[in-house]
Amino acid sequence: MLKTTTAKIFVVLNKIDLLSPEDLAESVEYCTNILRNVMADAQILPVSSRWYLEGRKKESGIVSLKETLESFFKDAQHEIELKSSIIRCQKILTLKREQVALERKAVELSSLELAESIKQFQTFKDEIKETKQDFRHIINGQTKLVQEQMTKQIEDFRQEKSFKLTREIKQRFNNHGTLKEVQSYSFARIYEELESLRPIVSEEYHERTRLLLKRLSQEAEELSSHITAVGGKVLKTKVTVELPEPVFTNNNTLEYFIEKAVGLVPFNLEDAVSILPWSLSKNIIVNRISEKAIQLMDKNCGRIRADIAERLAVATRNYMELWESELDRIVRLIESAIEKGIQMQEDTLKRDEWQTDLNNREEKLNSIADKIQFLLET
């Protein structure tokens, strides 16, 4: 299949940060051997998203991947655009031919057959409604599962770093740090920890979202088979469900905020405790700084959780909308054919005129199909 439809194959070997140099070499060799029978000049590009997010851009392989693809697209841009246009034309042609076939079948039905098709069409619409509900449940369940997994990862991070941060603040103050120094240090440490979380959570989110959309696509494909079978029974003619392509936006900018202007120590706290012995007032201040620092860490981890939840909702909602739009298109297609059949039943004088129009449409579609085939062969 790939040999006939693809001019070039690029294989991205991800997560190489988990492999030793020896294991990486073995993996590349294995992929090369597997692909040799498919396409001898397939190019394998090892990359690490984590290294790229951590600033090790050249070592990550992402820069090399980008340069390789840019060079390929620059050289093969016109061919790629032509093939993409041909593929789109083929899809449109298939749908138009399907529309003509449904319309012809509906008009050729007898009154009794058409009445039976109308009953089956109502059943089909009920099936569509149930399918939409089933898919919503699938999306909600799968999205909730991914969100819970990501929440646990962030919560584990928050608990571990909050304990560590509290200990470091107290140690810093015990080493004769001033209030201003400790507060600046605390802000810097919170920022460092959140920045260390960014590449980890970003990569995990991207991978889980990619797998989520892949699972949803598989579920949609199974449901499509059922819809195709039921829809085909209405007019005894095949109907095609065009599965939407999962759209995944790769955005590494997780949202959080550092409220430096607010500060960690309430106004005049140092003055308020100045009448107390220093050993006691110091403990009050450091405990207060630690408490506020933990609150700030909690708030930012909560913001990251909310950001991930929002992104998941957008990704799955977009896919759901595309899927439902395709189901609605099929309903309109069959409904339009049935309406044409009813119209011809009521006005038989227009049947000849309709037949001429339909033949003209079929002739044009066949002509377009011949041109597309010519382009493919050349």
Q: How would you describe what is shown here?
A:
With 378 residues, the chain is mainly alpha-helical. It has a domain at 110-346: Four Helix Bundle (Hemerythrin (Met), subunit A), CATH 1.20.120. 78% of the residues lie in helices and 2% in strands. It has 10 helices and 2 strands; from the N terminus they run αβαβαααααααα. It has helices at 2-5, 21-36, 49-53, 57-60, 62-108, 111-174, 179-234, 269-272, 278-346, 351-377, and strands at residues 10-13, 43-46. Helix 2 (21-36) links the parallel strand 1 and strand 2 (43-46). Helix 6 (111-174) runs antiparallel to helix 9 (278-346). The protein starts with a helix and ends with a helix. Mean pLDDT is 81; it is low at 1-5 and 258-273.
Short description:
This protein is mainly α.
Oligomer: single chain
Order of helices and strands: HEHEHHHHHHHH
User: Main beta sheet, described?
Assistant: 2 strands, parallel
Q: Give the overall silhouette.
A: elongated
Unreliable residue stretches: 1-5, 258-273
What fraction, in percent, of the residue positions are helical? over 70%
Strand order of the largest sheet: 1-2
The chain-level structural class is: mainly alpha
Beta strands, count: 2
- Distance linking N and C termini: 18 Å
Given the structure, what is the number of helices? 10
Reported by name, the CATH topology of the domain at 110-346 is Four Helix Bundle (Hemerythrin (Met), subunit A)
* Chain-averaged pLDDT: 81
* Assigned CATH architecture of the domain at 110-346: Up-down Bundle
